C-alpha cells in the first residue's frame, strides 16, 4: 500500500462514515449520548479537507495527519482514541513507501496498544477494541498463512464486523455505556460498529 492507496482508504472511510452517520448516532443514542456519528463525520470531513489541500508525502505522515486531525476535531472519547491509533500507525510506518500486509498489521497492533494505553479497555469491555482486536488477529493469522493481501483484508473486515456484532450481548465496562450497567446489554457498541466500517472501507478500496 502506497500513499495513494492510504489516501483512497481515508477518503472511503470519510464517505462511509458520512453515509452511516445516522446509524452510528442511533447506536450511540441507545447506550451513549447520540453523537458518535456526528463526531466521526466531523472528524473525517476535516481529514478529507486537509487531504484535499495537500497530500502528505509519506504513508507515516498521512496517518499521523489523520490522527492529529481527529484529535483536533472530534469531541468525545472516540476522537482521542482513534486519533491515538492513527498517530501510532503513522509513527510505525514512517517513510515506508510500500506497506505490506505484515507491516500494516504491525502498525495496527501499535494503534491498538495506543488505544488500550489511553482507554484501558480489554476485549469483552464492549468498546471498539472488540472489533479492532479480532480484525488484527485475523490479519496476523493471514500473514502467517501467507494468503493474498485481498484475502487477508477480507478476513480482517469480516472479523471486525463479527466483533462489532458480538458486542450486542456484552455488558459495557468502559465509556459512557458503562454508566448504564445491565441496560447496556442488547445493543451494539457504536465505536465497534465504526471500527467495522473502517475495515470495510479498507476492503472496498483493495478490491476495486
Ligand atoms: P462519547 O462517548 O464521549 O460521546 P463517542 O460517542 O464518539 O464518544 O464514542 C463512543 C465510543 O468510544 C464507544 O462506543 C466505545 O467504542 C469507545 N470508547 C469509549 N470509551 C472507551 C475506552 N475506554 N476504550 C476504548 N474505547 C472506548
Ligand atoms: Mg457519544
Ligand atoms: Mg459525546
From TrEMBL:
GO terms for molecular function: glycerone kinase activity. PANTHER family: TRIOKINASE/FMN CYCLASE (PTHR28629), TRIOKINASE_FMN CYCLASE (PTHR28629:SF4). This is Dihydroxyacetone kinase DhaL subunit. It comes from the Bacteria. GO terms for biological process: glycerol catabolic process. Keywords: Kinase, Transferase. Residues 4-204 form the DhaL domain. Pfam families: Dak2. SMART domains: Dak2 (SM01120). It comes from Streptosporangium subroseum. PROSITE patterns: DHAL (PS51480). GO terms for cellular component: cytosol.
Amino acid at each position: 500500500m502506497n500513499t495513494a492507496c492510504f489516501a483512497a482508504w481515508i477518503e472511503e472511510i470519510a464517505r462511509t462514515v458520512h453515509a452511516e452517520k445516522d446509524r452510528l448516532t442511533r447506536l450511540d443514542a441507545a447506550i451513549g449520548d447520540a453523537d458518535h456519528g456526528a463526531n466521526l463525520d466531523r472528524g473525517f470531513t476535516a481529514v478529507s479537507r486537509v487531504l484535499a489541500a495537500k497530500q502528505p508525502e509519506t504513508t507515516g505522515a498521512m496517518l499521523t495527519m489523520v490522527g492529529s486531525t481527529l484529535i483536533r476535531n472530534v469531541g468525545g472519547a472516540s476522537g482521542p482514541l482513534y486519533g491515538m491509533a492513527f498517530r501510532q500507525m503513522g509513527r510505525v510506518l514512517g517513510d515506508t513507501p510500500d506497506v505490506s500486509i505484515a507491516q500494516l498489521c504491525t502498525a495496527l497492533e501499535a494503534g491498538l496498544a495506543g488505544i488500550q494505553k489511553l482507554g484501558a479497555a480489554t476485549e469483552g469491555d464492549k468498546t471498539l477494541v472488540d472489533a479492532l482486536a479480532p480484525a488484527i488477529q485475523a490479519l496476523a493469522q493471514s500473514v502467517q498463512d501467507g494468503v493474498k493481501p485481498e484475502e487477508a483484508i477480507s478476513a480482517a473486515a469480516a472479523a471486525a464486523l463479527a466483533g462489532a456484532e458480538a458486542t450486542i450481548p456484552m455488558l459495557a465496562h468502559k465509556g459512557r455505556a458503562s454508566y448504564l450497567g445491565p441496560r447496556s446489554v442488547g445493543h451494539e457498541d457504536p465505536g465497534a460498529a465504526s471500527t467495522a466500517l473502517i475495515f470495510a472501507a479498507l476492503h472496498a478500496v483493495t478490491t476495486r
